[in-house]
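Exercise: predict the structure of this protein bound to fe (ii) ion.
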Amino acid sequence: MILKDLNQINKEAHIHTFHPSGLDWPERFDDEELKFLSRVAFNEEGHERAAIAYLTKELAQLAEIERHVSAVMTIVLADLQGEEDRLSEGFELHHALTCFAAEELQHANLFYRYVRLLSQDDFKYANNLFQARLTPYQGTDSPYIKLAALCCSAYIGESVITVFERKTRALDPEMKYFFTRLLYWHGLDEARHVQTDHFVFEHIVPNLTAAEQRRMRQILDITEALNGELATRFEAYTKEKFGFDYTENNYAHHTQLELTGKFRSLVFGERISKVDDAMDDEGRALLQRFSQAETIHV
Ligand SMILES: [Fe+2]
Ligand SMILES: [Fe+2]
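Solution:
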């Protein structure tokens, strides 16, 4: 039954998806598109250059995180070949994690292409801590510990970007702007990743022993700390590259930090929770103000 549920998540993954080659990439973005980005980030037009810097930083950083998710999933998939338990029998778990990994690698491709077009610059960052972020997953821990730690970490970013997707849809219901469509395309896959994370929270995390759960939290904490360091580095690099501070009066930037902190405290409690289940009034008010919706994944 559980394996059937897992298989259900990706049953139509080949239909509800977009390949980066299939998108309507323009030569460059016009003024209307850039004004829209300014409205998304600053609630008003006139901050186009800062909106470009902000989205370039965030989506390039997200691409780095997605590439890491893909790589760790690949390690987990290899490790699972040595497992004999019921969950790793058959194709279901292997299929679900392979879809997840492949989609995240294409998202890294998608977002890097987008930020280079948006910034009109060959934006890339070598000090991306990739090896350091991979190391905690290269040990002899059970693949279920690694998978649980990875999904917990990925879930926070996936929840935050879903809120942004909702915000752009609220501002642009007809999806006139490329950015709205970009988040929609990405979100088609993300909706399945979130369901997979929820599956892991419900069926894998509770079956880990107390010691395994402690180890999972340890790997999660290391991943979160390194991702935090990555964000700091990306911010400094982007400020230097663009030559100004794009975070000043940047409503989306400040809300994003607030959402990330809030989601971490809600999800990583005594037990790992789904973000909507754990949501409180303060969080709902914040979501409503920013994205005109009180829920995220439901
Ligand atoms: Fe993604
Ligand atoms: Fe994802």
